[in-house]
Amino acid sequence: MTVTGGLTWWRDFIVLACFNHYDERDEIRMYPRVCNLDNAFATSIKVPSQVLLLNVFKDLLVIFCADYHISLYQIDRQGTQPNPTASITRIQDLSLANFVPHPTSLTCITLTSLRSEIRK
Question: Structure pTM?
Fold first, then answer.
């Protein structure tokens, strides 16, 4: 496994984007803080291409891939101590191909709670 898109924390899980050499695919993995970095404790999902950036906001994971797509995932905690698990569900996908000249030109991806409201 090679970490490709960085890593971050979500609650008591470490979240990382990686390339799985054994299965030859790109993945997002989550490992509980209280367990070893062992695949027996990992939650993983396949992603369509290499993850370049990832970030967490509340219970949402946002990733930007080399195919110019931003994907948004819902993260849910399952189970209790001592071996909690997490589930990751894709909720939205958006292409930035018309807005970004090259995938590596993006340096950061962040979600926020700011919003714009128009009042009449």
Answer: 0.85
